[in-house]
Amino acid sequence: MRIIVCVKQICQTYARTGMDPERHFLNPEDAVYRVNPYDEVALELALRVKDLENGGEIIAVTLGPIIAEAELRRCLAMGADTLYQVEIDEGVDPWGKSKILARVIKELGADLILCGKESLDKQNGQVGA
Predict the structure, then answer these.
(1) Residue 85, H or E segment
(2) Which of these, 88, 109, 115, 129, could form a disulfide with 125 (CB 3.0-4.6 Å)?
(3) Mean pLDDT split into 10-residue runs, the chain, 129 residues
């Protein structure tokens, strides 16, 4: 059984970060990133399914640049067999991300697709919900 788990890299909401006074946003150089906790729950479920099926393959898929490399490697440490990253532009909206993700999942082929219920950063639940 091939299981695909969608994982998103998010900025930790409790991390102390500096503000960019000109743009009134968090300074990206100060941000601390991690894998979205809801996606970690989906990965844990994938591991349970893999155990119940007596084997299989788990592929963690992420969109965008790898900004939380150590955290994404944690997906592998938890038991994912492969981490698959798709580079996309920052300006892609949720609908565009959904279309890209659907195309990638179709190309990879999956018996089961798991996603977290939403991301903690934007909480819109549109991609993967």
Answers:
(1) strand 82-86
(2) 129
(3) 92 62 66 84 97 96 79 89 89 88 95 86 62
Residue from 68, 64, 75 nearest 5 by CA: 75
**Domains present along the chain, CATH in parentheses:** 2-115 (3.40.50.620)
**Residue entry with tokens 């007596």:** 54
Rounded to an integer, what distance in angstroms lies between the CA atom of residue 75 and that of residue 73? 5
Q: CA torsion 33→62→88→110, rounded to 10°?
A: -170
**CB count in 10 Å sphere of residue 2:** 14
Strands 82-86, 57-63: pairing is parallel
C-alpha 79/C-alpha 89 separation (Å) is 29
Q: How buried is residue 63: exposed, middle or buried, by Cβ count under 10 Å (0-12/13-18/19+)? A: buried
Torsion sign (Cα): 4, 82, 64, 13 = positive
